[in-house]
Amino acid sequence: MDNQEITCPHCRSDIPYGANVCRGCRAEIKYGTPKFFIWLGLLLPVVVGYFIARFLHLTIGAGETIAWVVWGIVTLAGWYGCIRVCKRLFRNHVSFTRQTNR
Questions:
Q1: In this structure, is residue 102 part of a structural domain?
Q2: Which of 56, 87, 96, 99 lies 20 to 30 angstroms, CA to CA, from 23?
Q3: Could you tell me if 56 and 66 are in contact, meaning their C-beta atoms sit under 8 angstroms apart?
Q4: 3-class SS at 70?
Q5: Does the pLDDT of residue 34 top 80, yes or no?
Q6: Is 30 strand, coil or helix?
Q7: For residues 44-68, b (16+ Cβ closer than 10 Å) or e, as one string?
Q8: CA 82, CA 40: separation in Å to the nearest integer?
Q9: Which domain holds residue 27?
Q10: Tens digit of pLDDT for each residue in 44-83?
Q11: In sequence order, what E strands does the chain have?
Q12: Given a cut of 70, is residue 96 above it in pLDDT?
């Protein structure tokens, strides 16, 4: 997005892409994946991997070592997948946060 401008939703100022602060209203500009999705992408594979490993251990009778290996593989694969999905979904995501006067 070289030489492109974005418009601030608060003051309607045109700002060059890559700026950190709006020139018109001083709103903070952030690019990329929101923090909520980063945390979700870190925690969800850990939990899913745990339940898959527990299922294998308790119902199929897989050994504890196998269950831990499966948990690790599912967690790492989930992290990798979440990173790829978030980069694709939020590649053009721009958020503006304006501070309120207190």
A1: no
A2: 87
A3: yes
A4: helix
A5: yes
A6: strand
A7: ebeeebeebbeebbeeeeeeeeebe
A8: 9
A9: 5-97
A10: 999 999 999 988 888 888 788 888 999 999 999 999 999 9
A11: 5-7, 14-16, 28-31, 94-97
A12: yes
